[in-house]
Specification:
Two copies of one chain form a homodimer. Chain A contains two helices and eight strands, in the order E-E-E-E-E-E-E-E-H-H. Chain A is mostly beta strands and 144 residues long. The first copy, chain A, has a single domain, classed as YaeB-like (Elongation Factor Tu (Ef-tu), domain 3), CATH 2.40.30. In chain A, the strands form two sheets. Chain A has a six-stranded antiparallel β-barrel with strand order 1-2-7-6-3-8. In chain A, strand 4 and strand 5 form a beta hairpin. Chain A is globular and about 45 Å long. The interface between A and B is large, with 62 and 62 residues.
């Protein structure tokens, strides 16, 4: 199961210290450059208001199975957290598509580091992807 | 960028003809078996009501860049569709967690084929992952 980069995510974030706490809260407009050989795959993408991006978390530690979150000091399994450290370090973010210009997509709402390799783009569908009342118990308790 | 399977998705769907049109509409309860060496990563996952699953679409054709959808006859770029055929054939589905029993997760809402290799599990957060009014232009037009 070998992945190939289909493009590069350009952001103003050079180190993990620069990144916003969550991509959804990022107000920066960022550019995704799709490699020329994959540009045909973008046909009609401008008809999508929101995109799911999958990308490779380059600096992640793929040996970590339990971790604590900035929100609390308890230890959780990595599959119960959104930590970048996990066996297969794939980042996931729902973003807003601002515009497409050729092989470049201008998007909003991502916290990836600059030069992050892009793996996949999927159109976001409210009908199949939006759950209004999902719960993450440990997270809810820490917000109180 | 090499992936390793962290488990196996068991479903009643043996061929693509058996699968429901969209996982979200599947009423079957399916079992995900997490390999023993990754079981520590499941700590506290039972506190999550919904899970994002990433999995490997084994039979997909990774050379396809444009395709048409069962919904219509127009050709779209694969990044504007949810087709399994794409440069990096990673499947994505938001599912409901019914229960965890040791290294097995019982879930609802997936259309993957039986024995699909699981790549990652992330907790679904309504706050960062739910967009209520996303639009996919070509899809909306075909529903009218």
């Amino acid at each position: 199961m070998e992945l190939k980069p289909i493009g590069i995510i350009h952001t103003p974030y050079r180190t993990t210290w620069d990144t916003p706490f969550q991509g959804r809260s990022s107000i920066e407009t960022c550019e995704i450059e799709i490699f020329k050989e994959y540009e045909d795959g973008l046909k009609d993408i401008d008809q999508c208001s929101h995109l799911i991006l999958l990308y490779w978390l380059d600096g992640a530690d793929n040996r970590v199975l339990q971790t604590h979150n900035p929100f609390d000091t308890d230890i959780h399994g990595v599959f119960a957290t959104r930590s970048p450290n996990r066996p297969n370090p794939i980042g996931f973010q729902v973003t807003e598509l601002i515009e497409r210009k050729g092989s470049v997509l201008r998007i909003k709402g991502i916290d990836a580091l600059d030069k992050t390799p892009l793996i996949d783009i999927k159109p976001y569908s409210s009908g199949i992807d939006a759950i209004g009342d999902a719960k993450i118990g440990w997270f809810e308790r820490n917000r109180r």
